[in-house]
């Protein structure tokens, strides 16, 4: 797993309601906000918010993207928008932008990619493993992000 993907999972797991809401531990929210801030403030993040397989990969901009990291981040940001009252709208807008860019530029055509939804994920670029391929967990988090987006738009909660 790439360091980038590990960091995006940190945003995802630190926003879990069991940790923050049920246990009431503000430190989890602070860590999630910090990890999200790192993602969006990193100078290696492209304009479309779909990261390269590693923020510091040596061949940027000719490095493969990692849509799985973007999908995890979008899903986490929708949840984070519910708990971070100060910046909730910012997180939601960024999640929307990621989902829009994934939908517009990284979707497989029907009948392509053996039924996968998203193209251009990277499992471990440092190990030359699963580079620029569709990955099942990218599709999972993309669908989860779409569901969370829909619930927020229709009910105001996820």
Described by strand count, sense and barrel closure, the largest sheet is: 2 strands, antiparallel
Query: In whole angstroms, how far apart are the ends?
Result: 28 Å
User: Strands of the biggest beta sheet: in what spatial order?
Assistant: 1-2
Count of spatially separate domains: 1
The secondary-structure element order is HHHHHEEH
Strand segment tally: 2
Defining traits:
mainly alpha, 158 residues, 6 helices
Summarize the structure in words.
- β1 and β2 form a beta hairpin.
- The protein has a single domain (3-155), classed as Glycosyltransferase, CATH 1.50.10.
- It has 158 residues and is mainly alpha-helical.
- It has 6 helices and 2 strands.
- A two-stranded antiparallel ribbon has the order 1-2.
- The two termini are 28 Å apart.
List the SSEs and their pairings.
Blueprint: H1 3-14, H2 17-22, H3 26-41, H4 67-83, H5 88-105, E1 121-124, E2 129-133, H6 136-155
Antiparallel strand pairs: 1-2
Give the gist of this structure.
With 158 residues, this protein is mainly alpha-helical.
């Amino acid at each position: 797993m790439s360091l980038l993907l590990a960091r995006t999972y940190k945003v995802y797991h630190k926003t879990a309601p069991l940790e923050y809401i049920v246990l009431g531990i503000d430190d989890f929210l602070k860590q999630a906000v910090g990890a999200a801030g790192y993602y969006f403030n990193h100078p290696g993040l492209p304009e479309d918010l779909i990261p390269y397989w590693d923020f510091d990969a040596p061949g940027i901009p000719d490095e493969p993207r990692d849509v799985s990291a973007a999908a995890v981040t979008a899903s986490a940001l929708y949840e984070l928008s519910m708990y971070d009252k100060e910046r909730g709208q910012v997180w939601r807008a960024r999640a929307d932008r990621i989902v829009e860019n994934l939908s517009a530029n990284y979707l497989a055509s029907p009948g392509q990619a053996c039924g996968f939804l998203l193209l251009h994920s990277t499992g471990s670029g440092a190990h030359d493993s699963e580079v620029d391929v569709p990955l099942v967990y990218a599709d999972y988090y993309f669908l989860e992000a779409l569901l969370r987006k829909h619930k927020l738009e229709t009910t105001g909660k996820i």
